[in-house]
Amino acid sequence: MTKTRHSGGTTPQAPRKGAGPNERGGALVSLTRKAGNGAPAGVGEIRHLGLVAALVLLCAAGLITEPENFATSGNAVGVLVLAATIGVISVGQTFVIIGGGIDLSVGSVMALASVWATTVATQSYGPAVMAMCAILVGTGSGVVTGLLISYGRMVPFIATLAMLVAARGLAQRMSDRRTQLIRPENDAIEALSTTKLLGLPLLVYIFAAVAVAGWLLLNRTTFGRRTFAVGGNREAARLAGIDVRRHTLLLYALSGFCCGIAAIIIMALTTTGSSTHGDLYELDAIAAVIIGGTLLTGGRGTITGSILGVLIFTLITNLFILNGLQTSDQLIAKGVIIVIAVLLQRRGLRSPA
Amino acid sequence: MGSSAPEPLLVMRGIVKQFPGVRALDGVDLDVRPGEVHCLLGQNGAGKSTLIKVLAGAHQPDAGEIVFAGAPVRLAGPTAAMRAGIATIYQELDLVDGLSVAENIFLGHEKATFGFTRRGDAERSARELLGRLGHAEIPPRREVGRLPAAGKQVVSMARALSHDARLIVMDEPSAALAHDEVDNLFRIIRELTGAGVAVVYISHRLEEIRQIGDRVTVLKDGRAVAAGLPARTTSTGEIVSLMTGRDVEYVFPERSEEPRGDRPEILRVESLTLPGSFEDVSFTVRAGEIVGLAGLVGSGRSEILETVYGARRPARGRVLVDGRPVRPGDTGAAVRRGMGMAPEERKSQALLPAGTVAANISVAGLSRYASFGWLSRRRELADVRRQIEALDIRPPDPGRPVVTLSGGNQQKVVLARWLLGTAELRLLILDEPTRGVDVGARAELYALIRGLAGRGIGVLLVSSEVPEVLGLADRVLVVREGRVVHTGAARDLDEAAVLNMIMEGSAL
Predict the structure, then answer these.
(1) Which of A6-20, A282-296, B206-220, B256-270 shows the lowest mean pLDDT across its residues?
(2) Closest by alpha carbon to B132, among B152, B158, B156, B110?
(3) Distance between CA atoms of A183 and B338, rounded to whole angstroms?
(4) Which of A92, B80, B331, B370 minimizes the number of CB atoms within 10 Å of its CB?
(5) CA B47 – CA B26 distance, rounded (Å)
(6) Molecular function (GO) terms listed (chain B) (predicted)?
(7) Neighboring chain B residues of A226 at a CB cutoff of 8 Å
(8) A4 inside domain
(9) pLDDT given at position B252
(10) A9 within domain boundaries
(11) What is the mean pLDDT of residues A322-343?
């Protein structure tokens, strides 16, 4: 089931006119709420409401079309498991996009991390080292793209596109294009998907932990606040004394770190490391972030929205599979959802305070 | 031009343009005769740019009438102005660098059949237009981005001619040109006027106006204070006095006249040089002292501030705070050493447009509220509220989106950013602190700046408005073409003297 790929090549459109006064990123919204004083209700909350409504609608559709299969705990768990890999990647992607960049290399970097962690040499050190290896490879790739972008002054699109191609190639070369099985003595990795705690596989907890940590980092730390500043107005951030280049580097390193964690999850799910893992995941991750209300131009966005975006996408996949519909229809549906989401958000931005 | 005073080509009567908080044009009259070079003079903010934007169709006047070639016209947009025969050449040339010379000349009115461009045709016409301007050597196929500034200007003029313009507005056309290129520009202008085209010429260089101009209209505070003066014979003194002596009263707080020589030196700038912008600039700012830089746009004044603050890296020279050098080209280092800056372009350089008032105030001082990166939002908000109250930012709501505030309150937000930890702020750098701020809020800002100096903070200030520099600063540096040409106490200077120094061209 994990082999289902959930998106095609639909490139999301960035909302162009995003400078609406009554719309803020998560950190600033929460500061607003605390401030009170009759501040206009943030569109951020309304938008999340819309995403939740979309989720509810999808669930209703599931209940109606497949009443006996959809509403099972097994299916619910399946959706969460399916969402975990892209979900973790999307958290990193959200940071990069709010910071005014984009990371196209996430799928490839995840594949590279999974291959590196499952080589004979790495496997001989045991599961803990394998996991460490995946995270190090992911973070390392992120540092490389981050250096190219921040200190090498390359355009993020191009630097991460180069990494997308190169990481995939390196993964193929390391694995000789063969799927590398995790050896039985290292089945602790697989245990992340088979061992359950309160009915949920451990990897769902990893997903949840990454999401919560991401939310806290974005909304409760100086790092998060500076991410909004760097993405919202790079020059203003620089003139406020923020080290914009170092911050940019850290954002891509963070995205790579998330890819490393995603590699551990995909290894647990498939018991393999492969250069074919994560193909086109970058598009799913970007689409989820955009649906979640993060501006592709930077400066605004929320982790919650991205997670909801991932869940919506996963639920669509789930519904189409349950109903035995074509993958092609599923892709069309996702494309339409992206367009509708962005159109609705743009309307939200334009409405007066 | 003839002495028979021919029928005017353009008559503007009682043009009014109101912007939020500012009446940019307050009933301007202007008449331009065919074949003359009509110069527009006025200080920054006098309404020159607004007036030419009305002529270009970019702004719609709120009142008044425009008569062009004997018939009333409504310039509903740039295309309408073009079609009427009015072309505008802006200071920042609006050419597309990636297109060829010919493509730029016919941009928007391409020579085409069923959407297919007739390139040969366009190139032939372009060559002819360029020839008329005395620049047949510019190849029509050359990419515009590869032309020098003077070449681009010729292309802009060719574009104006391609519309059969009868009136060409030139906004500081000589600003980007070298000396011999200016001569060529004048030759072109004379050829145009010889063919009956009228030119509205805007320049700060009085010397040029003497050379090329026929008549002069002086704008001040949105009104024409003198119209149709002879350009060659009116004395410089008369022009300067027309440009100054404004109606708007500047309300400056009383100066505390205490000797400041014994105060410790906060900032010392030693022979700072940024090639192409400024050379060998040295000065000091003492605790509690306000030092003002007066100079034209492009004189290097803003670049000096930005280099002191570390936003640009100087080629030579040093910046010292409290006697110790600051790492050059590093705004973070500048902030750590106690500098703060309110940059010239509030919107693009200072504000986080998506952020709230609170987020905009605390952005530069976040580490103050953080332990190991973890923010204490309670302490942050408490400090933000304190500053909102201290600076009287209205509405006093930290959660409000910053873009909904007025210009004056936005500027207070930028100032508040540096006052969160007053103990740490040593030097405040202000570039055009009252741009886009209405008169009432200006007085508040002046009082605020003076108050900060009273607390021992050094202030380094740039303003295009000479009265502002004179009224606020204790000491004034006059900057012209990248050099400090005068340093002196503000009370020893008056507006006319400073204007004379900053506008003095090579021949005046």
Answers:
(1) A6-20
(2) B158
(3) 59
(4) B80
(5) 9
(6) ATP binding; ATP hydrolysis activity
(7) 363, 366
(8) no
(9) 78
(10) no
(11) 86
pLDDT of residue B439: 67
Task: Please report the number of interchain residue pairs, chain A to chain B, with beta-carbon separation below 8 angstroms.
Answer: 130
Domain residues for B392?
341-425
Domain that holds residue A190: 26-30+43-59+73-350
Flag if B353 and A19 touch (Cβ within 8 Å). yes
- B341, B364, B399 ranked by CB distance to A32: nearest: B399
CATH of the domain at A99: 1.10.3470
Residue B104 CB coordination number (10 Å): 26
Supply the CATH number for residue B234's domain: 3.40.50.300
Chain B nearest CA to A89, separation (Å): 23
Domain membership flag for residue B272? no
- A33-40 CB contacts, 8 Å cutoff, 24+ apart: A33/B399, A34/B377, A34/B381, A34/B399, A35/B356, A35/B358, A35/B381, A35/B397, A35/B398, A35/B399, A36/B399, A37/B396, A37/B397, A37/B398, A37/B399, A38/B397, A39/B397, A39/B399, A39/B400, A40/A353
Among left, alpha and beta (phi > 0; psi -120 to 50; other), residue B436 is: left
Contact in structure between B276 and B178 (CB atoms under 8 Å): no
Closest by alpha carbon to A219, among A301, A307, A311, A100? A301
Tokens of A303: 């982790």
Is 0.90 topped by the overall pTM?
no
HSE-CB for B112 with a 13 A CA cutoff: 10
Q: Is A33 in contact with B399 (Cβ distance < 8 A)? A: yes
Is A228 close to B355, i.e. CB distance below 8 A?
A: yes
Residue-wise over B392-424: b if at least 16 C-beta within 10 A, else e? ebeeebbbbbbbbbebbbbbbbbbbbbbbeeeb
B-chain CB neighbours of A228 within 8 Å are: 352, 354-355, 359
Does any domain span residue B324? no
Is a pLDDT exceeding 70 seen at residue A58?
A: yes
What pLDDT is stored for residue B423 in this prediction?
Answer: 61
Please tell me the total count of domains within chain B: 2
> Quick check: is B334 in a domain?
no
Q: Do the domain assignments include residue B483?
A: no
From chain B, pick out residues whose CB is under 8 angstroms from the CB of A227.
none
Instruction: Please answer yes or no on whether B354 and A25 come within 8 Å at the CB atom.
Output: yes
Structural domain contains residue A6: no
Please give the mean pLDDT across all residues of chain A: 85
Of the three residues B393, B408, B425, the one that is the final residue of a domain is B425
Distance between A153 CA and the closest CA of chain B, angstroms: 17
> Running along chain B, 508 residues long, what does each successive block of 10 average in pLDDT?
68 88 84 92 79 90 91 88 88 80 86 79 90 86 86 87 89 76 86 90 82 90 86 79 62 66 89 92 94 87 94 95 94 93 90 92 89 90 92 90 86 91 83 79 87 92 88 92 90 86 58
pLDDT at A20 over 60: no
Of B385, B401, B425, the residue at which a domain comes to its end is B425
- B346 and B239 assigned to the same domain: no
Residue A2 domain-assigned? no
